[in-house]
Every structure is written in structure tokens, then in C-alpha cells.
Amino acid sequence: MTNPKLELSSKLTPLFDYIKKNQESRKIRETVELAATFILISFFLFFAIRPTVLTISALIGEIKSKELLSKEMKKKISSVILAQDLFSQVQERYSVVESCLPVLPRFSQATSQIEGLLTQQLLEVGKLDFQIKAGQYFSTSIATASSFTSGINLIAALLQNRRLLEIPNLGFSVDKESTGSRQVTLNLPLNIYYWRDQVREKK
Fold first, then answer.
1. Whether 184 contacts 144, CB under 8 Å
2. Interior angle at CA 18, CA 15 and CA 21, nearest 5
3. What is the pLDDT averaged over residues 24-47?
4. pLDDT (tens digit, 9 = 90+) per residue, 109-156?
């Protein structure tokens, strides 16, 4: 007589085998799906998100550099505006500056100014000869006979003259034979300055 339990077990064995195989195949399928998902996410991160992140970081760097450039440009624009304001303020006085320190030597201007001061002191002098020096000036010399007071007044007037000049030294001498006339001989060298345009000379 057969055992019913053995018969039932033998009948259920194929079912258990089938269920076991299904479980193993389901685990394999889940593992494959998980691996595929991981690979897909990695692929997406590398080929899609990475370029986006790089682009965003490059844009951020460019924005920062443009902000710095904008600040520098604002500073330069402010400097130019300030320089224009200062120039507009000085431009009105340019003629005064030009008469004090002209760009060119302007010998005729210097001659007329010196002769005018001599005339004010009632002094006579011969022709003025000018010698251009290596620096930004030319020189001349005044030699005349006058009273001591007139000579001092002439020196004071020359120093107060608008044209920039220098008296490197001066000399008074008295002729022993003409002491009664109270006349002194005045020897007065002058250095008269001008603004040499070096940029124009280089051209």
C-alpha cells in the first residue's frame, strides 16, 4: 500500500521546483534592472548633468569676471569724468598759464615784457640777445646804468612779472670817476623758462 504523503510530496516537487526557479529568475531580473538603472543614472550624470554643471560653473566665472571688469570700467569712467571737470575748470585759466609758461619760447613776448619794465623805470638798454640753453629755458642779460633805487625796483618788477624767469645772480658796480652822479652799473642775467613739448618733438 502506497504512502499518501510520499505521493503528495512527489506531486508537489515540480511545483516547488517551478516556484524556486521563478524566485531565482525574479532575483536575477531585479538585479539586472537595478544594474541597468544604475548604469542609466551614471550615463545620465556623466553625459547630461556634467556638461550642464560645467557650463553653469563657466557662466558663474564669466559673470564674476564681467563684474570685476564693470567695476574697473566704472572707476576709469569716473576718473575720465573727474579729469574733464578739472580740465574745464582750468581751461578758463589756460591763457594765464600760457602767459606764465608758454609752450614755445616766445622771444617777442619776453622782449616786450622786459622792455616794458625798463621803460617803467626810465631805463635804457640795447638790443636783447637770447641764447637757448639745453634745459627748458633761454637766457639773456640786461646791462644798464641807473640809480641804485631804480635797479632794485627793476629787479622787484622782474620777479613779479607773469612770465616765469630766474635771476641766477646780479651785479652792481660803481664807477669811481662818476661817484657824484650816484649812478651804478647794473649787470642782470636772466633765465626765461618755457614748456618744451617733448611729445611734439619726438614726432
1. no
2. 150
3. 76
4. 888 888 888 888 888 877 788 888 877 889 998 888 888 888 888 889
- For helices 107-120 and 148-159, the axis angle rounded to 10 degrees is 140
**Beta partners for residue 83, in sequence order:** none
Q: Could you tell me which residues come within 8 angstroms of residue 193 by beta carbon, excluding any fewer than 6 positions away?
A: 101, 136, 137, 164, 165, 166
CATH class for the domain made up of 101-201: alpha beta
Q: What is the DSSP letter of 124?
A: -
* 140, 192 contact by CB (below 8 A): yes
Return the domain boundaries, the chain. Answer: 1-100, 101-201
Cell matching residue 203: 614726432
Distance CA 134, CA 131 (A): 10
Residue type for position 73: M
Show the beta-strand stretches assigned E in the chain: 131-132, 137-146, 165-166, 171-173, 184-193
Q: Which three cell numbers stand for residue 34?
A: 537595478
pLDDT band for position 77 (50/70/90)?
Answer: very high
Summarised one tens digit per residue, pLDDT across range 91-112 is 777 777 777 888 888 888 888 8
| Closest by Cα among 102, 96, 123, 136 to 188 | 123
